[in-house]
Structure formats: structure tokens, C-alpha cells
Amino acid sequence: MPDSLVIIPTYNEKENIERIIRKVFSLDTFFEILVIDDGSPDGTADIVKKLQQEYPALHLEERRGKLGLGTAYIHGFKWALAHEFDFIFEMDADFSHNPDDLSRLRLACVNGADVAIGSRYINGVNVVNWPMNRVLMSYFASMYVRFITRIHIQDATAGFKCYRRKVLATIPLDQIKFVGYAFQIEMKFTAIKFGFKVVEVPIIFTDRTEGVSKMSTRIFREAFFGVIQMKLSSWFRNYKN
Fold it and tell me: What are phi and psi of 111, to 5 degrees?
């Protein structure tokens, strides 16, 4: 039985979605794919529907409107748990996450990790084609997260991850509050607080060459202030596994 599911949230990714799907299905390790599309006006979902005729292991969930990265992943996690996948992955559609690294993340979990993070900063700074201001913002954001939360993760904002099923079955997904990139921080923090083993696997992150980044000032602000809120709230929360 297939045991691995790659969740790919999309909003206006028509330039990338077919290529990323074909690439994942070309890998030696077999992964099923779940695309969560937030009503992309560019026809991303239509491309996925056509590809479903070719790939039975390609799944699509359509939502009405742009509801946020975090809620897309929560939707996908619940779908993955309902369909009994053992290894559940987060991956972007734009090739900033190299699909070749999926097998390395999976192997880290097979070998004992509960969460494996594709890390840009565990071995220096491994980012390609980002402007320096974006690199610095991301790098110092992770430093800020470590300072506030006291978690020892070098790439706290990373969005390329593999979870073992038991992690997502344990975390109360409906209590995850953040919808933007702060969601990535909250999931790592919560997994660690529940006592799960989180490891970082070095990757090279390459900025998108097609499509438009979804980063915004609102998303950055949510992450900056949300980390403090999350840490304070954790003092009054029970993390019993």
C-alpha cells in the first residue's frame, strides 16, 4: 500500500503545477500527491484535473477563495490522516523545494525522526537566487524565533517537511492558529512541545523562476508578533502526548 503523500497548496501556479507533478511521479520512491487549490483564477485546478486522467495517485481538493497556507495544510493533514498515510509531506509548487529531496526527508523519518525539515541553514546558508534582503530577513527571522521560543531549529520558517502520521494525529490541528508563514513556526514549536523528535536535513533552496511569490507584509507581521503570542500561550497549555 502507498504510504507517502505530498501535499502541495496552490494559488495561481499554472506555470509550475504540471512540471512539479510530473517530476514527483518520476521519482524512484513512489509518492501520492494531494493538491489543495484555493480557487486559482488562472486555471491551476483545471490542469490538475486533466493530469488526474493520467495519474490515479493524483488527488485534488478545491476550496473557495484564498484561505491561507496554514488552513490549506490543515485541510491536507486531515485528508491524509483519513486516508491512513504514514508519511505526510509539505512542499511548494514552484520548485523552490527540490522534489529529489523528498526521499531524503522520508528516510530521515524512517530512521527515527518524527518530523524531518528540509533546512536551508543547518549547513551555512544554502539559498539560490534570493535577493540579499530576502536572505537576511529569512535568516534573522529564524534567529528571532529561536530567541523567543528557545527551540533549537536553525531553519524555523522552513516549509519543506515530512511528518510521521503519529505527529499529526497527536497535534490538535483545529487549535493551530496561524494561516501564513507563521504556521510553519507553530507546527515545529508544537511538535517539539509534544516531545517529538525533529531533525533538520540540509537542502538547497532555489527561488521560483515562474509565477509570483505569495509573501506579503501582513504575513510577515503575523509571524513577527505571532511568535510572542505563541510562546506566551504555551505557558498555559498542556502538551501531553
Answer: -90, 10
Can you give the length of the chain in residues?
241
Which of 25 and 136 is assigned the larger pLDDT? 25
- Chain centroid offset of residue 137 CA: 19
Instruction: Say which range, 89-98, 113-122, 171-180, has the weakest mean pLDDT.
Output: 171-180
Give the mean pLDDT of 140-165.
89
Residue 109, pLDDT above cutoff 90: yes
> What residues contact 148, with CB distance under 8 A and at least 6 apart?
227, 228, 231
Euclidean distance between CA atoms 154 and 182, whole angstroms: 15
Q: What is the bridge-based pairing of β-strands 205-206 and 127-128?
A: parallel
Torsion of CA 187, 190, 195, 201, to 10 degrees: 30
Which residue reads 484535473 in cell numbers?
49
Contact between 154 and 147 (Cβ < 8 Å): no
